[in-house]
């Protein structure tokens, strides 16, 4: 294990109130509190755990996004990543463009990846595409929704969570792409000394055109952002009085069958 | 005049706030209820570098400015004022060593705090001497090859867990502040008697005890500064720590205000959100006025300390404004919550109890007014 | 008329997963083939597909397709995608669909609209809608460039078609040999979950518990209710973070996004993150002691009461209703 690349994305905090732009082109991004995509934290932590076992390992964090809000790359370096690459892009771009940009950035770094880690999804577009797309573009195998991770030499053992909580076990040779899920580890805090050290760590900056991306790489266009329709108010029953609870619940069960017709 | 924070300072804040939200807020009620000491949380905070920020870089610390420490403390108090008391107490105890210690003393006493998670206690207050701190009776007497410490200390934060105690005593109580000296007493020294944990109204996660020093032998090299310089050291320490305590009040007030705003938007009465009632809006507006004004005062006091400008008056104004403001904000926040605010089911009740201590410790609101008045009168 | 391929999966009774039928219903009037990877459906399954308009049912075969793999499935579908000349290829946004369709997008160099919850046709052009920010907002999605365009559909989102196709498709089943080269990431073994229930993301009925469940042990009252109505049990983030339930059960923005027909929330206050994850449920029932809990703003039927009293009565009443 020599070179680990970790893909990170800056996303609005989960408590953010999302307001579509008036022209529907995206959502309002001013006054948003940005955080590192929570699933990416597991990927960063995993890279650092591997680095502890393989101290010669270099961890590079890669992000595609705007220059103005680059905190998540700093945070990843403050947690312990060695360097960072930012591919500058403005506005909303699709997964194909993102994956292609990341591929270009990794190639430009001149280092051959042994492992590429990312979160299983970004909580803004929830597309769940980039890690597998990147693996496809780079002709590497990939395993997603990973909750268990062991490295022995060049062999990686993974646990992937599938439907109903079953676990698939994988064992394969690096290089590969791994998309991490919650439960894999407990991400460390970027320590205060780490924050100070991160200032001195290198951050390479490229434009989309530098990494071989063009307008024709846009395969999916998003527009017409709007709030979901509000539901009309439902029926509310007060069943705090034990004596009435039985009859009320019976009524609700009846409504589910006869009015809502879901049972 | 530039009010903007550096990008590093914003990152410190972000980290501290994240720690407060992830580690402190979810556990605050539990430790408040049980009164247990959240040592694991403090250890995590230490790992993240959030403790002992005053330790200079040469001794392995972060060497943070007072303003940096204030920004961090504000966020930690947002998580839990009680836990923050304990975390802040470490800085309070280490500051006299930073201020008056020799290079050798700093290396010996400060560096271990950067190598592993340790706690410290600042021992000034006594059962009969709170506000009248210069009237302390604990004795520190020269016994030739060592000092002997005798006396009772009260309300000692981290008392039951401290790895070292910074103790103030006098060689002769009649000398008042001129007789006071300050020594470092390591944990486990014979004669340290640790009292039972105080059962308090608030700040219940913080460990507060009486400590008795009974013929405690202290090596001569543990004296900070010279004999009789203790009072000066204590006052310099308080110039640094007062903004920290005031910052804690600002953090607590911000939390109370955030909770009140959220609840006001959620709660419906008379068919509409209570946030639409002007009576509620005015309470929220005044919370905003007090909190923002206090924050500016606290930052100014910390900035002055960093610029080595005498901050006695501003620090006292900041401390009094922030803690009195916090008490009012917490009271109004409970009022907005109504009956639910009085219940332990909701977090505001604890903040209300925690708030009260901020008006008492580290110089009561009345003592702060005495200081402010003295400073005003002196300049004319 | 667009030429469409739906890649389906089998459920436990060797019938196509219901999301396939949902997609078939929405693509009525186009020329539709259905593909399975590895093993095909039962006779009843292919008959059902034909009734909803499937023309050819392709079973993609290779010795490397005996178990799921991202590379293998992607390679298999890629081959028929090219040879079949499809304009659109659909699948369900299931664990497998979410995993290999992005790889297919890379290999075909075409776009993927993932986790689409609704769509319409204008002639042969697809116009989709998909949630962003876990459903806090919706966006239109359009495919750019040449096809075949890839689309994954969230299970239960479209709804089952109310009627079968006017003219049944041929439903002709044929094995198609595909060439799958080396598969590097192959499942070595599987640890089966204790429960054989449908996954939350595909469940038609969900019973969820929040912080008010107080401990993990108490979830058994939800299990009892779930058993009666054939539901899968979920949990709020607060319950997961308190250690009452594993993360696999978490519904919400950092857990699973669900859209069942019936969602019963027990002792869940309804944080913005939780509401985002379950707001597309068709009917929501909430049980909570706090009449002001935000969950009630989303509930079709709200019961203000103590879940420890209400849930057992619900179980009893459903038992009586369903004759169990």
Give a verbal description of the structure:
The complex is a heterotrimer of chains A (263), B (380) and C (324). Chain A folds into two domains: 3-217, Rossmann fold (3-Layer(aba) Sandwich); 231-263. Helix content of chain A is 28%, strand content 29%. Chain A contains six helices and 13 strands. In chain A, strand 4 (58-65), helix 2 (71-79) and strand 5 form a beta-alpha-beta unit. Chain B has three domains: 7-115, Orthogonal Bundle (Butyryl-Coa Dehydrogenase, subunit A, domain 1); 120-225, Beta Barrel (Butyryl-CoA Dehydrogenase, subunit A, domain 2); 231-378, Butyryl-CoA Dehydrogenase, subunit A, domain 3 (Up-down Bundle), CATH 1.20.140. Chain B contains eleven helices and ten strands. Chain B has helices at residues 7-34, 39-47, 66-79, 81-100, 103-109, 111-115, 230-266, 278-306, 312-337, 348-358, 365-378, and strands at residues 120-123, 139-142, 146-157, 164-170, 180-186, 192-197, 208-219, 223-224, 268-269, 272-273. Chain C folds into two domains: 3-177, Rossmann fold (3-Layer(aba) Sandwich); 200-322, TPP-binding domain (Rossmann fold), CATH 3.40.50.1220. Chain C is an alpha/beta fold and 324 residues long. In chain C, helix 5 (219-229) packs parallel to helix 8. The longest helix of chain C has 16 residues, at 307-322. Chains A and C meet through helix 3, helix 4, strand 7, strand 8 and strand 9 of A and helix 3, helix 4, strand 5, strand 8 and strand 11 of C. Strand 9 (167-173) of chain A pairs antiparallel with strand 11 of chain C, so a sheet runs across the interface.
Neighbour order of strands in the largest sheet of chain C: 5-9-4-1-2-3-10
Spatial order of the strands forming the largest sheet of chain A: 9-8-7-10-6-1-4-5-11
Number of strands of chain C: 16
Largest interface (CB < 8 Å): A-C, 90 and 98 residues
Tell me the distance between the termini of chain A: 54 Å
Give the count of helical stretches of chain A: 6
Average of pLDDT of chain A: 94
Look at the structure and give the CATH class of the largest domain in chain C: Alpha Beta
Number of domains of chain A: 2
